[in-house]
Amino acid sequence: MTTHVETEIADQPACWQRAAELASTSLPGLPEAGERVAVVGCGTSWFVAQAYAALREGAGQGETDAFAASETPAGRRYDRVLALSRSGTTTEILDLLAELRGTVPTTAITGDQDSPVMTAADEVVLLDFADERSVVQTRFATTTLTLLRARLGLDVSKAVADARRAVGEPLPAGVTDRTQFTFLGTGWTVGLAAEAALKMREASLSWTESYPAKEYRHGPIAITDERSAVWVFGPAPEGLEEQVAATGGLWVQPDLDPLASLVLAQRLAVSLAAARGLDPDVPRHLTRSVILR
Question: How many domains is the chain partitioned into structurally?
Answer without folding.
Answer: 2
